[in-house]
Amino acid sequence: MAISSPNRRRQRSVRVTVAVTLLSVATAAVVLALPTQSPAWLSVSSVFALVCGFAASRIIYNELLQSRREAATDRASQAQAYRSMFSERAAEHAEFTTAMTDRLAIRDRSIKELEGTIVLAEKRAMEAETRVKREARRANDAMELVASLQEQLEIRKAEEADELASWEGWDGVMDASTVVDLLAWEDKANAGAGAAADDRKHA
Fold first, then answer.
1. For the chain, which residues make up each domain, given as ranges?
2. CB neighbours (10 Å) of residue 23?
3. Hey, is 5 helix, strand or coil?
4. Which of 60, 25, 59 is nearest to 44 (CA)?
5. Is the pTM higher than 0.85?
6. What is the pLDDT of residues 137-167, one digit of tens each?
7. Which CA distances in Å does 119 have to 54, 74, 124, 127, 132?
8. Distance between CA atoms of 45 and 39, rounded to whole angstroms?
9. Fewer CB atoms < 10 Å away: N or C end of the chain?
10. What is the torsional sign of CA 56, 57, 62, 66?
11. Separation between Cα atoms, residue 22 and residue 26, nearest integer Å
């Protein structure tokens, strides 16, 4: 907003003072001429009062016109300043809007990238979980196979122990007399077989 300079204020105060002084002088002249009741003095004072009133009116009118011009100039300056300020604000608003749009675009792009990363991480986690489950299943199968083989090994060891024990028992039963009896029986069997063969020959 434009502010009047001190010189203008001083000129206004001087002009208003001059106009008031002229009116005061005209009033004093009329007041002084009235008691005289002289037509000449009354005419002179009247004419002087009219001239002073006209001069004061002219001064006030010029001051009013100048005040209006200054007010119009101030309003024009204010309008120009407001227009400039509005243009600056519009440019700042456009710049701010562009910056915020770019930020929003960057944020949306970052969000999409993060969502893609999260989806990829979830997929990898699912694959890892599936792999872990598969490996755990294989480990369980291997453990079951090991347990089965251990059981079969224990059974085999028990069977071998039983067989070994039975052979050891058989060796204990077969003593020397039994072996002699078996050999005598074999000789008798062979002799009987030879006699039978001679009988068949003689026959």
1. 6-107
2. 17
3. coil
4. 25
5. no
6. 888 888 888 888 888 888 887 777 777 666 5
7. 94, 65, 9, 12, 20
8. 10
9. C
10. positive
11. 6
